[in-house]
Design brief:
Blueprint: H1 3-18, H2 25-41, E1 48-51, E2 68-71, H3 77-85, E3 91-92, H4 100-111, H5 122-132, H6 141-150, E4 154-158, H7 163-176, H8 191-213, E5 217-229, E6 233-235, E7 246-248, E8 253-257, H9 264-269, E9 274-286, E10 289-299
Parallel strand pairs: 1-2, 1-4, 2-3, 4-5
Antiparallel strand pairs: 5-8, 5-10, 6-7, 9-10
The structure holds S-adenosylmethionine (SAM).
Amino acid sequence: MSKPLSRLLRREQRAFLARDRAGWKAHLARIRAFLGEGLQAADPGRPVLVLGAGAGLEVPWDQAPASTVGWDAEPWSRLRTLLRHRRWVPWVFEDATGGLVELDATVRRAVMEPWSKRRRDPTTAARRLAGLLPSLQPHPAALAAWIDAHRPSTILAANLMGQFGVLAETLVEAAFAPGSPWVGDPERPDPLAEALETWTIRTVTGFLDTLAASDADLWLVHDRAVVFSDGRLDLGPWAEAWTAQLRAETGTLEARDALAGVEVPEALARHGRAVVRAERWLWDLAPGQRHLVEALHARPA
Ligand SMILES: C[S@@+](CC[C@H](N)C(=O)[O-])C[C@H]1O[C@@H](n2cnc3c(N)ncnc32)[C@H](O)[C@@H]1O
């Protein structure tokens, strides 16, 4: 991982841990219970992989077999896990998407003229970047190689998939600062935002394809949507489309798809995988901001 990307993940991790966690109790209990079940059901004779292991806030490491490996590209995550759980876990610090380094290089190329090192104006740079993004083919090569070499019995994805698009956006915005890469007017098309969304779709799909192609039991937890609302928000009975499950009684509601429209069960079904359990819950991340979290257990074909 390059230095700027490690720095970006470190900043994000610090911001995540610095949030007021007063409203996180229910979320933490549910995610720990779900991931704990996955860890307990794992074959301890084979490796177990925890992707997005982070600082171990959401991962009940006391239930993890000795053969469990953490995976998180944030440079302090392993140490934070040691401090929280008193366990020095074998760790992989690679980018789980395989696409971030190339994305970062492409953004820099668009923002700066390579010959003069002068910054392009934001509109020109955004147009250029929108033209370059479709040629990127994010592929999680390190993850695929690790799975091939270690053949884990169980893979947990602990709340990282919904981060891929957000991280890409943060990376682009940081490179354009103090300018903005976005068109800003919601009435006008924004080619860069659309190109980045397509990159996110390819990244999430590539990640899921790699997981589903393994013969591991999958326990996946991810933000399905980020919801901004100033009124009461509830979840109705399970509905395949997450939008149909949200119940807002009053006030305004704005929801953002964290997976750029990728439906995880459909993506897994392309590999013959069946989702045998599915849950959703609301996570009060901050006042007015709630995440719709999805937890899926998928068995190998
Ligand atoms: C919302 S946090 C999850 C927190 C974590 N599950 C815990 O228990 O503390 C997302 C985690 O995914 C990691 N992450 C995000 N994108 C990643 C990537 N492309 N490769 C590796 N790790 C990534 C971040 O560093 C962060 O620790």
